[in-house]
Design a protein that fits this description.
It comes from Drosophila madeirensis (Fruit fly). Pfam families: Peptidase_A22B (PF04258). Keywords: Endoplasmic reticulum, Hydrolase, Membrane, Transmembrane, Transmembrane helix. This is Minor histocompatibility antigen H13. With 390 residues, this protein is mainly alpha-helical. It has one domain. Helices cover 71% and strands 8% of the residues. The chain has 14 helices and 6 strands. Strand 2 and strand 3 form a beta hairpin. The relative contact order is 0.13.
């Protein structure tokens, strides 16, 4: 069994590199070509669906950033080291999935992935619906709070393993999300797929924070070459995207006009082409917000650049009749625009100096530790003196 798996892996890797020069030829499609109107509707819808998570996710990221700052909670941000290693980790994961699909039956892999993404999708969608439900729910419906707390240890060693607060409104959101999840499990309908995909994208843009502009540049630059290699250099990414039955991409039928909701000829856009530029654009909105200006020039200009980059991707794809690495067009657009705006406004230094959560210098940390040590020492000595007096 082990020898068979090794031989299969070798043949798979050999096949990848043998097909480097052949894969760019368009494979004949058995599906009936879609009408120009249907194609326009499909790609127009994909562009709109790509823009919405970036807009709403960016706005929510600003609120989350302010909330964490007000509570003093330490934010989880991507470091420069994380950004450097991200393309390598993503490449390993992508190639691993490709090998799995080549070695094992797709049915079994997709069965496991469907269950995993069902749970994630329900949670992501419920989180997204929660603020909407709070505003729509009538005042007559009571909002009863609940708090699940599961700790380990005692005293100073006490650690929260589960600390989750929710209300009856959140339970309603969870029920609605579960119904959509069951629909996705049973039918794998493209609308249910998109609902989960949009939830993942909005939550991703909201919660994945880049700490500064340089980290964003490192991340986008690395994924720029990652996308080019795996799309143009091999057939790995296209194969995985077509084999992977999970809401990691947005889809829209090109034959919707002809076949209605039962359409089957889909155009698709990976969530990575939304979330990766999205977290960079969200950083620019937080930068705009930190300057207390009325205009959000960095955010709006880069959002417009993202739109143009996406349109360029679709245009080139149809001209050359071949899948395009979207980040090939999106990365230069999203990185170049804020740099150009900063250069015109004379704010290059300000842009590069901005940090969501400024790191304390070692000297300041040492001073803080000394102050804390002296204060704790003085308090303990005072306690001893009071005990002696007693």
């Amino acid at each position: 069994m082990a020898d068979e798996v090794i031989d299969t892996v070798k043949e798979t890797i050999k096949g990848i590199f043998e097909n480097v020069n052949v894969k760019n030829e368009t494979a004949p499609s058995e599906k009936k070509p879609s009408s120009p109107e249907g194609i326009a509707v499909a790609y127009g819808s994909l562009v709109i669906m790509a823009m919405l998570p970036i807009i709403f996710g960016s706005i929510r990221s600003v609120k989350l950033h302010k909330l964490k700052k007000s509570t003093g909670e330490k934010a989880d941000t991507m470091t420069k080291k994380d950004a450097m290693f991200f393309p390598l980790i993503a490449s390993a994961a992508l190639f691993g999935l490709y090998l799995f699909f080549k070695i094992f039956q797709k049915v079994h892999i997709n069965f496991l992935l469907t269950g995993y993404f069902f749970v994630l999708g329900v949670i992501a969608l419920a989180h997204l619906l929660s603020p909407v439900m709070n505003s729509l729910m009538p005042a007559a419906v009571p909002k009863v709070p609940f708090h699940i707390l599961f700790t380990r240890g005692e005293g100073k060693h006490k650690e929260d393993l589960i600390n989750y607060k929710f209300s009856t409104h959140d339970i309603v959101c969870l029920v609605i999300s579960s119904v959509i999840g069951v629909w996705y499990l049973l039918k794998k309908h493209w609308i249910a797929n998109n609902l989960f995909g949009l939830a993942f994208a909005i939550n991703g843009v909201e919660m994945l924070h880049l700490n500064n502009f340089v980290t964003g540049v490192i991340l986008l630059s690395g994924l720029f070459f990652y996308d080019i290699f795996w799309v143009f250099g091999t057939n790995v990414m296209v194969t995985v995207a077509k084999s992977f039955e999970a809401p990691i991409k947005l889809v829209f039928p090109q034959d919707l006009i002809d076949n209605g909701l039962n359409a089957s000829n889909f155009a698709m856009l990976g969530l990575g082409d939304i979330v990766i530029p999205g977290i960079f654009i969200a950083l620019l909105l937080r930068f705009d917000d930190s300057k207390k200006r009325k205009t959000r020039i960095y955010f709006y200009s880069t959002l417009a650049a993202y739109f143009l980059g996406l349109m360029a991707t679709i245009f080139v794809m149809h001209v050359f009749k071949h899948a395009q690495p979207a980040l090939l067009y999106l990365v230069p657009a999203c990185m170049g625009t804020p740099l150009l705006v900063a250069l015109i406004r004379g704010e290059l230094k300000v842009l590069f100096a901005y940090e969501d959560h400024p790191e304390e210098k070692p000297e300041k940390k040492e001073n803080k530790d000394k102050e804390e040590g002296s204060s704790s020492g003085s308090s303990s000595s005072k306690k001893k003196e009071s005990k002696k007096a007693k």
